[in-house]
Amino acid sequence: MTKKKDLVMVYVSIDLIDEPAEPARFESIQNGLQELTESIKARGVIEPLILQPRGGRYEIVAGHRRFLAAKMAAVVQVPAIVRSKSESENREDLIHENIHRTDMSIFEESVFFDKLHKDHGMSQAEIAGAVGKTPGYVSQRINVLRWPQDLQGHLRSGAISFSAARVLMEIKDESARTYYTDQVALGGANVRTVEEWVRAANAPPAVPPSGLEGNPQPRPVSGPSVYRPICWLCGTPHEMGELTTVQLDHACAQMMRDAYLAAQSDSPPQP
Questions:
Q1: pLDDT tens across the length of the chain (271 residues)
Q2: 4-86 CATH pick, 3.30.190.30, 3.40.50.300, 3.90.1530.10, 3.40.50.620
Q3: How far apart are the C-alpha atoms of 121 and 123, rounded to whole Å?
């Protein structure tokens, strides 16, 4: 194994460097890139990249953002440490490059942990110890990659929060889950509201009333679930997409309802 004290920094032509085949930070890599470019224009590349030889060229092991910013700054050569690494060194570099990143998205964390598990043979407990998280935290992130593609997409875009997405995954029926996922992505909903939807979606279907001759009469349903939320003011059931979620404390909500009922009855609200 190459010891750190034996590593020598060299300058490598930026035209000979290739981006990593599977960057761990493919979404947040652009965050702050322009600021880093301006810094490199003024001061140059301070921290060397770590490269490995690859067919007469070099592949980035660590320093992907510095490489992109250096290209934007029209830098010709960058400082680098070139080495052929062992498997353990590959893993150490990958963890070191990402462990202290505060701008990694949840989806990027999922890809990162999954890569450590599949490509480097680390157990979830080992990953948790290496990155300073609990095994449950690591397991939750890796499970994201097993979610339906539409839910993953909404999580990546920010249309659905991680907490809401986890609750949506509790819906047993796939078509109902897709329906509710679309409603959350389009209209927004807090986690408590989503939990109510999930309970309704997973509830056993109500027994339909009998007809005059004892035959069950079909009851129309809305979407894949019979659940239709009721407007708190007027008491009318609606499709979920017809409602708007607002944040009110209990006192303000009660004042609004009292005012609405008073307007409906043309009488002042009771004290």
A1: 344 445 678 999 999 999 887 665 555 566 678 889 999 999 999 999 989 888 889 988 888 889 999 999 999 999 998 887 666 666 666 676 666 665 678 888 888 888 888 877 889 999 888 888 899 999 999 999 999 999 999 998 888 999 999 999 999 888 889 988 988 888 777 888 889 888 888 887 655 544 444 444 444 444 444 456 667 677 777 665 666 666 677 778 788 878 887 887 765 555 5
A2: 3.90.1530.10
A3: 7
pTM of the model: 0.53
Distance of alpha carbon 55 from the chain centroid: 36
Listed by start position, the domains of the chain span 4-86, 147-202, 228-271
List C-alpha distances in Å: 225 to 21, 77, 159, 191, 237: 43, 61, 22, 19, 14
> What are residue 258's phi and psi, to 5 degrees?
-60, -40
